[in-house]
Structure prediction request, 278 residues.
Amino acid sequence: MSTKDADQSLITTDVQTGSRDRTDRTHETVVKARNLDVYYGDEQAISGVSMDIPEHEVTAIIGPSGCGKSTFLRSINRMNDQIDVCRVEGDLSFHGKNVYDEDVDPVALRRKVGQVFQKPNPFPKSIYDNVAYGLRIQGKADEVDLDDAVERALRGAALWDEVKDKLDSSGLDLSGGQQQRLCIARAIAPDPEVILMDEPTSALDPVAASKIEDLIDELVEEYTVIIVTHNMQQAARISDQTAVFLTGGELVEFDETATIFEDPDDDRVEDYITGKFG
Ligand SMILES: Nc1ncnc2c1ncn2[C@@H]1O[C@H](COP(=O)(O)OP(=O)(O)O)[C@@H](O)[C@H]1O
Ligand SMILES: [Mg+2]
Prediction:
């Protein structure tokens, strides 16, 4: 049994409300940072960050603009590799394996750690092809029933009912909120373990944003969600724990979300949350 299955089996569901009881579960670390530094040329964007991110929970990352939230997220699935001047020092591990070890294939890593961006970015292709894309480039299209996999991903992204009769139409013809759910379907189709989301609702209207928030609550049943948001109410609503980064790329506090918002240790966190700066 994989650790994923083991952890799944510990999920208890409150039948009456349908809400999960997140207190009664183990919290195995899936992503672990130790003294992580990230530089762009001479500029340091992440400074000595250490953090254990637990499986099957929502971890929010908040902090003022430019404090390194996106950089941290991109260091988890090595999207920073694509930026020439970017340099990473320290440890960033996925299930105990340093993702910067020489024998790690970044493509294989990104199969396990998918990503959703701020602006919905469907490909100029059909809805079906958008979702099938990941499976096709991984050469898995022959191994799985593609129709079935596409339907499962669209259901998982709470989009199936809205698009099942028009799978051949362009992903770009959907509304913004539907496009973002399509991008989530595309991210989950290859069955990753972790989904990174960088301000996934900030380009959406409140109704569409709220659908994504509901969806995130469902996604953590199967995946680990790490979400950057500049919306503190959103972090408070949807996350289990919250990391607060401040200018200079320092992780100032990381704790249960209720603690961060109601009783933070660090005065700077309190000031940030109460809107004194940022
Ligand atoms: N591609 C890049 N090249 C050079 N500097 C960058 C790049 N991306 C981000 N930075 C710098 O790194 C710091 C952190 O940026 P970022 O991670 O985007 O912050 P946030 O997501 O919290 O707004 C900023 O000072 C930013 O200017
Ligand atoms: Mg950012």
Q: What stands out?
A: Residues 1-21 have pLDDT under 50 and may be disordered. The CA atoms of residues 66 and 174 lie 31 Å apart. Residues 3-273 form a domain with the Rossmann fold fold (CATH 3.40.50.300).
